[in-house]
Amino acid sequence: MGPALRLVAQRLALGLLLLLMVSVVIFAGTMILPGDVAQSILGQSATPEALANLREELGVNDPALTRYFEWLFGVFRGDLGTALTNNQDILTSIVGRMQNTLFLAFWAALISVPLAIFLGLLAVRYRNRWPDKLISAVTLTSISIPEFLIGYVLMYFIGVQLGWAPTVATVYDGMSLGEKLHAIALPVAVLTLVVLAHMMRMTRAAILNVMQSAYVETAELKGLTMFKIIWRHAFPNSIAPIVNVVMLNLAYLVVGVVVIEVVFTYPGMGQYLVDHVAKRDIPVVQACGLIFAAVYIGLNMVADIVSILSNPRLRHPK
Amino acid sequence: MIANTPVSALIGLFLMALYFLMAIFAPLIAPYGMAEVVGGVWEPASANHLLGTDNIGRDLLTRMIYGGRTTIFIATAATLVSFTTGSVLGFFAAVAGGWVDQVLSRFVDLIMSIPTLIFALVVLSVMPVTIPVLIVVMGLLDSTRVYRLARAVAVDIEVMDFVEAARLRGEKTRWIIFREILPNALSPLVAEMGLRFIFMVLFVSTLSFLGLGVQPPAADWGGIVKENKDGIVYGIGAALWPAVAIATLAISVNLVADWVLNRTTSLKGGRG
């Protein structure tokens, strides 16, 4: 077994261990906090009987460890429990919403990743000239702006004033792909803007790093054009850091999606989570929290594995 | 002093001062009462209501001024909680070393592997949403980032001769942390403070926007966006004002932090 494979196996095992620990943290976060959970769900005016019933339903009377393992084994079997508010099975509610969320994130990634890499290359090509400075200024601004502001600004100007795209992203099963894409045009645009800035800055930094190496100087002295140097020499060598950047930003996208779904009332996981946090529906919150954390950890793990695999020093052991 | 300050930092300082003064003197500046209904729903801007009125006829400028007060207060307090916890634990881990360092660092890695917003939502689903709870939850979640920075800086300082000297003359851990390491680690931490503050402003605004932060009738910028968002569809831009305030505050703090960072780079022993 090569050192690369061993490292990948290690990283996978670490990821799984991390996920297990995260499930403990999420469970502990909702259960062992100070104060009576049943009281905080029902409010101060709850009758003692209602409190006792809810405690029974939540299983608060069992020891915490028992409840954790019951929950964990349920998750392994694909049983996420039932929602307190409407007594529906959480898994069936989540599946459709998760597809919607992935649909949104997929299109945002499809647009933002190539665009970010292209703009990053452009910024390197015109380093310290006006295109680079303009791109830097725009990215600094977009990092300082909350996602929902970008959402409402686009909604106000593009959706309402110009009327080019619907302001509410409603998606249902009977829609054709074209209709769906039209419906999610604005949320995709916002998500693209949110991750574009980070991704572009880091792509620029990664390529600039490679540009300082000796072989790029050789290529320059050979008289290659600037664009050819970047495309043939700098870009292939910066693929690993760029893939890393892309993965980290996809992980960021997962969180950004929560806010954007609420802005555009899109029927996805984020909306589901936020609604049920407000209703204090703990089983739903635990399930959604675990899924979001798992996707986040998974993408970070893929980023690590890609950078291990793309390192030729590990791929060809001596 | 002023001659050497870049224009961007001056603009940042000016806006930052403006927002902080507005936050401190809110009751004196605000033209109306915070929750006072003074007109119709979503009146356009006029001489009486410079920014118009909000979704139930309160003066929007007044709401904005009080909202800034709440947002800035929560963000400042949470930044302080985050810095105190994060830097004390970070220094302690660096000085103690060994298994204490391992346990603390792995625990921080674990917390940081969960997206901050998601974790905050999970915790807030069982906690009563009040301002002190918000400050503590936000501050503790964010202290993981300060911990990493503080530990990294302290590990470099900890091997210096003067720390060794203090150890040899028999000083206790507390002395080493507060008298030897803290003064030398202060400038990178202060530069980081600006970024953490921005993050807190964005964080509390996002929570309030989602309806899980500051509760009405109290005003805060994220909450004002939430209250007025339905107007957007009818072409009423009331929800855009607090969002613009958040963005300008964040950008101006960013500009100032950049300037402070550049000025103090030489003090960081070339690490900057």
From TrEMBL, chain A:
Segments forming domain ABC transmembrane type-1: 98-303
Compartments where found: Cell membrane
Keywords, in A-Z order: Cell membrane, Membrane, Transmembrane, Transmembrane helix, Transport
Keyword Acetylation: no
Membrane topology qualifier: Multi-pass membrane protein
Predominant location category: membrane
Residue intervals passing through the bilayer: 12-33, 102-122, 134-158, 181-199, 242-264, 284-309
One GO-annotated biological process of the protein: transmembrane transport
Gene Ontology CC entries for this record: plasma membrane
Protein family membership: Belongs to the binding-protein-dependent transport system permease family.
Protein's recorded name: Peptide/nickel transport system permease protein
Automatic annotation (TrEMBL), chain B:
A Pfam family reported for this protein in Swiss-Prot or TrEMBL: BPD_transp_1
Keyword list, A-Z: Cell membrane, Membrane, Transmembrane, Transmembrane helix, Transport
Family annotation (InterPro entries): BP-dependent_transpt_permease, MetI-like, MetI-like_sf
Biological processes, Gene Ontology terms: transmembrane transport
Cellular component terms per the entry's GO annotation: plasma membrane
Protein localization: Cell membrane
Membrane-crossing residue ranges in chain numbering: 6-30, 72-97, 117-141, 193-212, 232-261
Membrane topology note: Multi-pass membrane protein
Every ABC transmembrane type-1 domain range: 68-257
Family that this chain belongs to: Belongs to the binding-protein-dependent transport system permease family.
UniProt-recorded name of the protein: Peptide/nickel transport system permease protein
Source organism phylogeny: Bacteria, Pseudomonadati, Pseudomonadota, Alphaproteobacteria, Rhodobacterales
